[in-house]
Write a structure and sequence with these properties.
The protein contains 11 helices and no strands. With 188 residues, it is mainly α. The protein has a single domain, classed as Hypothetical protein af1432 (Orthogonal Bundle), CATH 1.10.3210. The longest helix is centred in the last third of the chain and has 23 residues.
Length: 188
């Protein structure tokens, strides 16, 4: 159980790991990996329902997809050019799951392996959730004045696999991220 407690504290550390790609556009205070993973998991659930695939598996993939970044940090695409992040991430994940040997660790390792291989519909949905969450964040930053965030939105188009993901992306590109609360202010 001590290993499990250590794993949980380590997962909590992701609240302190910034998503570094946004530094490239001048954002000195981007969201954390934990914040990204939270909305990614919600998106994964919704996309799994829309695409009629195993919701639990997609949720697990989204929830654990970046846990290794507690050890490797979040490295933006420029840094990844010089470091084999996939290999480092797999090694970090193996070490992280070592204390969780048995049912829990094996189940997490299996879904992450499936996500990496990108052969199942669930893995494609989870990957889309990850890409779509980044696109949503890009749109939010774009509206805040980080115009270069449009690059993330443009690059998402060619990377999505699922029809529901593509439809959501086309809508969010034109949406005001603040519209949801602005309408609530006008309600009596």
């Amino acid at each position: 159980m001590q290993g499990l407690v250590h794993f949980l504290f380590e997962a909590g550390y992701l609240k302190n790991v910034d998503r570094s790609g946004w530094w490239l556009i001048g954002n000195k205070n981007p969201e954390s990996v934990a914040e990204h993973s939270f909305r990614c998991t919600i998106l994964g659930y919704i996309l799994a329902k829309l695409e009629k695939v195993d919701t639990s598996k997609v949720i697990m993939m989204c929830l654990f997809h970046d846990v290794h970044e507690a050890r490797t940090n979040d490295l933006h695409k420029v840094a990844q050019k010089y470091i084999n992040l996939e290999e480092a991430g797999e090694r970090a994940t193996q070490d992280q799951l070592e204390p969780l040997k048995g049912h829990i660790g094996d189940e997490i390792a299996d879904v992450l392996s499936e996500l990496t291989n990108q052969e199942s519909k669930e893995s494609m949905v989870a990957k889309d959730a990850d890409i779509l969450e980044c696109a949503m964040q890009a749109r939010e930053y774009q509206v805040k004045g980080y115009d270069a965030a449009v690059d993330w939105l443009d690059r998402a188009d060619d990377r999505l696999h699922c029809e529901s993901s593509k439809k959501l992306l086309s809508i969010l590109k034109q949406s005001d991220p603040n519209e949801w609360w602005k309408k609530l202010k006008d309600m009596k």
